[in-house]
Amino acid sequence: MFQDKAYRFKWADLGDIEKGRPNLGNMTNVAVYRLMHFSTREVLIENFGVEKTNQLLFQSGKLAGQEFCRNLLNVNASLSDFIAELYETLLKLKVGILRVEKSDPNSMHLVVTVSEDLECSGLPVTGATVCDYDEGFLAGVLGVYLNKEFSVKEIDCWSTGDRTCRFRINPQP
């Protein structure tokens, strides 16, 4: 699977979690997720630098968001129903609490927050945003739903001293 250069991640590659984890189930501690995420980030930075690492994490998040949308969300729903379903799904999976702060349905310019998110809620303040993966994830989800490319930029982050992550979302020309 991973040896083949033609390999492309797909939802089915997540496997049958119920079969593989009959006793432990599908939940784990957030610290374990962050251990994987931030150790991977560190190795990527050591090998490729910060800018390239941020790009790679964005791309990973985008691919994950695309597969997430295709497999867990109704892409034929109205925008308001789609956002409500995304909110419910992220909450159910304990990914975070999504809120739309500003939206222009005509231009698809949005500002959303994700509170209590997996990636950074509770991290020490460093002055730098760290949710590159989440930026890509949101771009991937919206891109599949609306069949267009989106630019997503984190403008507030727990690690910059805010208590929620805030993202500015704009369609790309």
From TrEMBL:
Q: Which source organism?
A: Geoalkalibacter ferrihydriticus
Instruction: Pinpoint the 4-vinyl reductase 4VR domain residues.
Output: 109-171
Q: Which residues cross the membrane?
A: none
Matches recorded under Pfam families? V4R
Q: Write down what this protein is called.
A: 4-vinyl reductase 4VR domain-containing protein
